[in-house]
Amino acid sequence: MIRLAIVNDYELVVAGVAAMLANDRHRIRVTAIAPAAGSIDGVDVVLYDTFGPVDSSMAFLEVLVRRSRVPVIVYTWKLQPAVAREALRRGASGYLSKALTGSQIADAVEAVVDGDIVISPELRPVEDLVGGDWPGRRLADLSAREAEIITMIAAGMSNQEIADRNYLSINSVKTYIRTAYRKIGVQRRSQAVRWALEHGFAATPDTTAPTEPALR
């Protein structure tokens, strides 16, 4: 059961999204959190509805990513590649259209929890938004986040350093590491470092975008 927090000022919006996900309540449990909440605990992923909060800028998204320490998905009507690219650069793990169905949202939430970066169909392919392809994507089907973490492991960073760098909880980092290790067929950190160096992990996947566009 995935615990999904919806960050939005309006009860109506939260109730609407929860109703859309009613058929998927066997896999998604919805809670609501006010944007002004000091911390976000006890959830697995955050759906950030950008229409509700007074401050719906990229700066708020970055604060939300840092505060929650779990994957954050932007949920918006604004389907502009430049805005989506900037949201990913600021730490979002997904960028979803409000036109999606409940089952599509549930599928996207599951994929993000599994380590993928998920983008609405109108904005795909995702590699166009995250700065091109990334090491391990085609060879081992690594997600962008998994590839990034493998790169940091190869650079000698500890799990805690990786968590701090990516605004993730230590448990989330360990989950990404386990799934990445399984995909590349290793069991130990030294094996992961060797695999990374043998398969071209020389730079961390990054994104580029113009200055702060609004999310609304």
Q: Can you give a write-up of this model?
A:
The protein starts with a strand and ends in an 18-residue tail after the last helix. It is 42% helix and 13% strand. The chain contains nine helices and six strands. By secondary structure, the chain is of the alpha/beta class. It folds into two domains: 127 residues, Response regulator (Rossmann fold, 3-Layer(aba) Sandwich); 62 residues, Arc Repressor Mutant, subunit A.
Structural class: alpha/beta
> What is the number of E strands?
6
CATH superfamily of the largest domain: Response regulator
Radius of gyration: 17 Å
Query: What does the largest sheet look like?
Result: 6 strands, parallel
**What is the number of independent domains?**
2
3D shape: globular
CATH architecture of the largest domain: 3-Layer(aba) Sandwich
The overall pLDDT, averaged over residues, is: 79
According to CATH, the fold-level topology of the largest domain is Rossmann fold
SSE topology:
Elements: E1 2-7, H1 11-20, E2 28-33, E3 45-49, H2 58-68, E4 72-76, H3 81-89, E5 94-97, H4 102-113, E6 118-119, H5 137-140, H6 144-154, H7 159-166, H8 170-184, H9 189-198
Parallel strand pairs: 1-2, 1-3, 3-4, 4-5, 5-6
Helix pairs in contact: 6-8, 6-9, 7-8
